[in-house]
């Protein structure tokens, strides 16, 4: 594969529409394979199918241990499934070389984690420029681009501060600036507000909202139903399976995306919740409005 573009436009020949940004087909992930003791094996994902289109803002929710981070690691090409197919922008991830995958992780995807993962010895703009140096951007351009990213998250005045000299909310904004510096089309955030107070959480959600309006695809993992309510779509994971997939409509009403088989489905939007499609989900779970359980 040639250079990875941050805004790829792979078109399936049949439809003429852009391929989904993320398409998981019956993904299984089993940890502990190859160990003699069967009891250490964990089926973290059990046949997950999920399609996310360009510009969608999706929250993934579910109890601790349900497989959310495992799912994100696969979507972010940080880990590989045990079985099933993962298409990223229409390309089968299993066909890509390690170098291609590293380039996708650095250029096409921006990662944000609960723990910020900033280098304590570097100030804010030095932290933000790191992905640019991995991408081979010349030093002369790196500072300008890092400062632009810091401006976007409202932190120009903290550019020379080290992480230890900033609040949790500011550190997370530095982490978001670092995730944005290569202008990725897909943002993956695993509990980005997990260590933030309510004011910083609101700031962070406003930031994700504006990134979404720019047309970036956002997949955000959260335990917090208020955080999930700000996304366009809420996918619930339980015991390694998707148990519901709900659209949040902008007028505050809700509708469902109900799986047709295992967890693949089509969204049907309804302004008044009347046009619901088969409200019983696989495993006998019954969908219940915009309910989000964590
Ligand atoms: N490297 C690993 N080796 C073995 N088991 C693992 C590994 N990583 C995760 N697991 C197991 O896989 C399951 C799913 O873990 P995962 O981290 O995806 O859950 P999660 O939904 O992100 O949980 P949390 O909300 O607590 O972060 C859990 O049972 C966990 O113990
Ligand atoms: Mg997790």
SSE arrangement:
Layout: E1 22-31, E2 42-52, E3 57-61, H1 68-75, E4 83-88, E5 91-92, H2 98-108, E6 109-113, H3 124-134, H4 139-152, H5 168-180, E7 186-190, H6 198-213, E8 217-221, H7 225-228, E9 233-238, E10 241-248, E11 254-261, E12 264-268
Parallel strand pairs: 3-8, 3-9, 6-7, 7-8
Antiparallel strand pairs: 1-2, 1-4, 4-5, 9-10, 10-11, 11-12
The structure holds adenosine-5'-triphosphate and magnesium ion.
Adenosine-5'-triphosphate (ATP) is lined by residues 31-32, 42, 44, 62, 64-70.
Q: What would you note in describing this structure?
A:
The protein has one domain: P-loop containing nucleotide triphosphate hydrolases (Rossmann fold). The protein is built from seven helices and twelve strands. The strands form two sheets. An eight-stranded mixed sheet has the order 6-7-8-3-9-10-11-12, sandwiched between helices. Strands 2-1-4-5 form a four-stranded antiparallel sheet, covered by helices on one side. Helix 5 packs parallel to helix 6. The longest helix has 16 residues. The chain starts with 21 loop residues before the first strand and ends in a 26-residue tail after the last strand. The N terminus and C terminus are likely disordered. Magnesium ion (MG) binds next to helix 1.
Number of discrete helical segments: 7
Averaged pLDDT = 83
> What is the domain tally?
1
- Class from helix and strand fractions: alpha/beta
Fourth-level CATH superfamily:
P-loop containing nucleotide triphosphate hydrolases
Mind describing the biggest β-sheet?
Answer: 8 strands, mixed
Give the N-terminus to C-terminus distance in angstroms: 40 Å
How are helices and strands ordered from N to C? EEEHEEHEHHHEHEHEEEE
The CATH architecture category equals 3-Layer(aba) Sandwich
CATH fold group:
Rossmann fold
**Low-confidence runs:** 1-5, 258-294
| Bound molecule kinds, no repeats | adenosine-5'-triphosphate, magnesium ion
- Beta strand count: 12
Overall morphology: globular
CATH class reads Alpha Beta
């Amino acid at each position: 594969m040639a250079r990875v573009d941050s805004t790829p436009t792979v078109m399936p020949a049949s439809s003429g529409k852009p391929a989904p940004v993320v398409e998981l087909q019956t993904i299984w992930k089993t940890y502990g394979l190859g160990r003699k003791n069967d009891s250490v094996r964990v089926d973290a994902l059990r046949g997950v199918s999920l399609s996310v289109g360009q510009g969608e803002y999706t929250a993934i929710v579910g109890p601790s241990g349900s497989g959310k981070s495992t799912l994100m690691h696969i979507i972010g090409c940080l880990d590989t499934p045990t079985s099933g197919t993962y298409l990223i922008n229409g390309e089968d991830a299993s066909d890509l070389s390690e170098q291609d995958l590293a380039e996708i992780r650095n250029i096409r995807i921006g990662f944000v984690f609960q723990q910020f993962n900033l280098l304590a010895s570097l100030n804010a703009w030095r932290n933000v420029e790191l992905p640019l140096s991995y991408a081979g951007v010349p030093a002369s351009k790196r500072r300008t681009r890092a400062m632009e990213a810091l401006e976007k998250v409202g932190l120009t005045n903290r550019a020379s501060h080290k992480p230890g000299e900033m609040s949790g909310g500011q550190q997370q904004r530095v982490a978001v600036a670092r995730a944005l510096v290569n202008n990725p089309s897909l943002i993956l955030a695993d509990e980005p507000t997990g260590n933030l107070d309510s004011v910083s959480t609101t700031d962070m959600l406003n930031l994700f909202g504006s990134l979404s309006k720019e047309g970036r695809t956002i997949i955000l993992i959260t335990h917090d139903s208020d955080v999930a309510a700000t996304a366009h779509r809420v996918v619930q994971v339980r015991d390694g399976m998707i148990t519901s997939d709900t659209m949040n409509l902008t007028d505050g009403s809700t509708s469902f995306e109900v799986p047709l088989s295992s967890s693949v489905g089509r969204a049907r939007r309804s302004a008044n919740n009347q046009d619901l499609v088969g409200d019983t989900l696989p495993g006998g779970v019954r969908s219940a409005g915009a309910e989000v359980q964590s």
